[in-house]
Amino acid sequence: MTSVTFNNQSANVSQFSVKFEANKSFSFTTEGLTGFPQSGTWALNVNETVIILNGTIELPIETLTSTRFGFKYSYKNHKEGNVDVRFSMDL
């Protein structure tokens, strides 16, 4: 991970890791993300603009270049309301 932000506030990237496998499996280490799966299967939508985890969790791809990959996870928190978590990785 290059950066992780919660509603534009930086998080400690050492608490996060992600691995997407060619066999369509994934594994995540995510600290404090409500409802975020730690493993399972992934797919892309028809337009290849959204990663779908375990058939239900949608992660819009925000950046995809030859050097950078970024996507977003959104959820509701009973204290903070809507939370947007952005993951960014340099390739």
Tell me about this structure:
This protein has 91 residues and is mainly beta. It has one domain. 0% of the residues lie in helices and 58% in strands. It contains no helices and nine strands. The chain has strands spanning 3-6, 9-10, 17-20, 25-29, 39-44, 50-53, 57-64, 68-77, 81-90. The chain has a nine-stranded antiparallel sheet with strand order 2-1-9-8-7-6-5-4-3, with no helix packed on it. A hairpin with a 3-residue loop joins strand 7 and strand 8 (68-77). The N and C termini lie close together (10 Å). The model has no long low-confidence stretch (mean pLDDT 93).
Please count the helical segments.
0
Strand order in the largest sheet: 2-1-9-8-7-6-5-4-3
**What count of structural domains?**
1
Ranges where pLDDT stays below 50 over 5 or more residues in a row are none
Provide mean pLDDT, rounded: 93
Percentage of helical residues? under 10%
Beta-strand percent range: over 45%
Mind describing the biggest β-sheet? 9 strands, antiparallel
Overall form: globular
The class by helix and strand makeup works out as mainly beta
The arrangement of helices and strands along the chain is: EEEEEEEEE
Q: Terminal Cα separation, in Å?
A: 10 Å
> Rg, please?
13 Å
Total DSSP E strands: 9
